């Protein structure tokens, strides 16, 4: 890689192909342009998750398409050429994945054209293998674990019905491993490695920003579940992930797009086109608000000291990882708001290691989260109304005396009328979901008494 990476010099990304050998998947990509070629390789090691079993080629091809966004965004060229045969619906999958999944990237980099590259390649629909999907929905599910409260609620909901889901993670992170250990369930892990040359390109001037990681992990999960003869891949994406952050040039820019019902529908329909039963993939928590999930998480005290929703412990660079909550990012602030009235001051201070209402520099962050700031943060946070509801409970609920006198609590007390207006405008839409009845019944539990 040269010392200077000029995104404008590249005119096309080619998705060159993929291979699977000795348990390792490799997808190859090349940015091509006037200053030469920039080749990349994405590697996913399935060895410990699949043993010597070879994944279905249709899913490997889908993974190659999905993982291409990391390399496409480096230059965001006007064309993408797929070198191997794909069906038109697979090419359309890639177009929609870019348009929705790179919305935040395009917004932050002022690159609207990055969302509409011309996608082409030899069209050759691969016949389903087998012609009829013999997958058995009654087998135990695969549940991705993120280390936060949402996947914990899914895990414990399924355990309450007598299921023993196989837990799944991509790469190694302490909060995920701790949650898996508390669950007492078996788990599998794969290792995904981004090409080091991409990191070097970013340092040399390549475009950088958010990509739909959940989409990549979802396809990896489908490969693991299929290879192990498991039931569905059960995600833990909630209703609020359907709500975007800002409107930009007529588009809804959504940080959580790959967690939304829009991506869930897209992936399910793509699976159908490939000859798979689309019920191999759904989100268990889709109909629940963040508040309803927090109510259920209250019934999972064994996880209180091990879960973390902050991004700091999940940094790709191990040298930059923190051991616990940072106490300032939008995810920390949102989870604090949800848990403060539900668990009380002593418990949330023990979880976070500090009191987030004491830090004056958190004022703007809290304002954004409760709908009194600039816009919904570009993070995995819930809706304005439920954050405002929680803050009102801090101000006026049963545990209000615990919080009285704290700087930010008193600051927001002066804005009680505005908070009330936000809390009074909940999202009363009836979101679509694909949860089978036997799984939906697992959510019929709420918080434990007091």
Automatic annotation (TrEMBL):
Pathway of action: Cell wall biogenesis; peptidoglycan biosynthesis
Top-level taxon of the source organism: Bacteria
Coiled coil: none
Keyword hit for Oxidoreductase: no
Database matches in Pfam families: MurL_epimerase_C, MurL_N
Keywords: Cell cycle, Cell division, Cell shape, Cell wall biogenesis/degradation, Isomerase, Peptidoglycan synthesis
Keyword RNA-binding belongs to the record: no
Every MurL N-terminal domain range: 6-284
HAMAP family referenced in this protein's UniProt entry, alphabetically: MurL
Name of the protein in its database record: UDP-N-acetyl-alpha-D-muramoyl-L-alanyl-L-glutamate epimerase
Organism whose genome encodes this protein: Mycolicibacterium arenosum
């Amino acid at each position: 890689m040269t010392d200077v990476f000029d995104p404008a010099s590249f005119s096309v990304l080619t998705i060159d192909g993929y291979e699977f050998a000795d348990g390792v998947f490799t997808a190859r990509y090349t940015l091509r342009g006037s200053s030469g070629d920039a080749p990349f390789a994405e590697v996913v090691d399935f060895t410990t998750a699949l043993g010597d079993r070879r994944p279905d080629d249709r899913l490997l091809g889908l993974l190659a398409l999905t993982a291409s966004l990391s390399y496409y965004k480096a230059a965001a060229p006007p064309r993408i050429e797929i070198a191997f045969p794909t069906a038109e619906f697979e090419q359309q999958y890639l177009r929609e994945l870019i348009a929705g999944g790179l919305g935040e990237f395009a917004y932050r980099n002022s690159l609207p054209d990055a969302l509409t590259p011309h996608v082409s390649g030899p069209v050759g629909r691969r016949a389903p293998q087998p012609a009829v999907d013999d997958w058995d929905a009654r087998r135990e599910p695969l549940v991705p674990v993120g280390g936060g409260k949402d996947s914990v609620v899914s895990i414990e909901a399924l355990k309450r019905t007598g299921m023993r889901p196989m837990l799944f993670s991509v790469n190694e992170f302490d909060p995920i491993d701790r949650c898996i250990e508390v669950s007492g369930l078996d788990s599998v892990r794969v290792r995904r490695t981004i090409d080091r040359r991409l990191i070097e390109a970013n340092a040399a001037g390549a475009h950088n920003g958010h990509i739909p990681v959940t989409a990549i992990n979802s396809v990896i999960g489908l490969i693991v579940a299929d290879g192990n003869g498991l039931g569905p891949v059960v995600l833990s994406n909630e209703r609020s992930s359907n709500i975007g952050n800002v409107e930009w040039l007529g588009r809804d820019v959504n940080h959580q797009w790959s967690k939304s019902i829009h991506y869930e529908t897209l992936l399910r329909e793509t699976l159908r086109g490939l000859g798979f039963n689309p019920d191999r993939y759904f989100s268990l928590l889709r109909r629940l608000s963040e508040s309803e999930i927090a109510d259920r998480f209250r019934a999972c005290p064994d996880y209180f000291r091990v879960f973390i929703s902050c991004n700091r412990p999940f940094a790709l660079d191990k040298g930059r990882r923190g051991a616990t909550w940072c106490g300032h990012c939008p995810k920390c602030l949102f989870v604090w708001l949800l848990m403060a009235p539900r668990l009380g001051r002593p418990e949330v201070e023990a979880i976070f290691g500090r009191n987030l209402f004491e830090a004056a520099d958190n004022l703007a962050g809290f304002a954004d989260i409760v709908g009194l700031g600039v816009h919904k943060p570009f993070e995995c946070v819930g809706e304005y109304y439920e954050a405002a509801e929680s803050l009102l409970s801090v101000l006026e609920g049963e545990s209000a005396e615990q919080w009285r006198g704290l700087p930010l609590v008193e600051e927001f007390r002066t804005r009680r009328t505005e908070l009330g207006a936000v809390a009074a405008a909940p999202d009363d839409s009836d979101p679509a979901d694909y949860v089978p009845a036997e799984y939906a019944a697992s959510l019929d539990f709420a918080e434990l008494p007091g």
